[in-house]
Design a protein that fits this description.
- It holds the Pfam family KH_NucS_shadow.
- This protein is mainly alpha-helical.
- It has one domain.
- It is built from 7 helices and 3 strands.
- Helix 2 packs across helix 5.
- It is globular and about 45 Å long.
Length: about 130
């Protein structure tokens, strides 16, 4: 299961649309490693003035790797994180997540990161099973 949904939030979802802040809080509480990783990359982006920031640190355990995979593989979770942090997320290899400024989505750096070439160049024997 990706998220641990509080009963009140589940009740709200059964009645209709849910508050974005409540959804993002559920993600934060359910997937703490993913939240910390995206938070860190977004903070690095904010403080750097660069067009993007990139995480290259593999998760310490498979459980944490799973959290990052679940967060970034879900359209709803990824979009919620992007809205909350006001970034565009890009993802490679079970741990390599980058945060881009929305204005940089049409940049060479973004296109390189999300390209087939970028994916292939980011492969290594250690990452083959992720």
């Amino acid at each position: 299961m990706s998220l641990t949904v509080p009963p009140a939030l589940l009740d709200a979802a059964e009645r209709g649309p849910v508050d974005d802040a409540e959804f993002v809080a559920c993600v934060r509480d359910s997937l703490p490693y993913a939240w910390q990783t995206v938070s860190r990359v977004a903070a690095e982006l904010e403080s750097s003035g660069a067009d993007h920031a990139d995480n290259v640190i593999p998760p310490p355990t498979e459980a944490e790797r799973g959290q990052l995979l679940r967060a970034l593989a879900s359209d709803a979770i990824r979009a919620g994180l992007e809205r909350h942090f006001q970034v565009k997320l890009a993802f490679q290899n079970c741990h390599r997540v980058a945060a881009f400024r929305p204005a940089a989505v049409d940049s060479d750096a973004y296109r390189r990161f999300v390209s087939a070439r970028g994916q292939l160049l980011n492969q290594s024997p250690e990452l083959r099973n992720c």
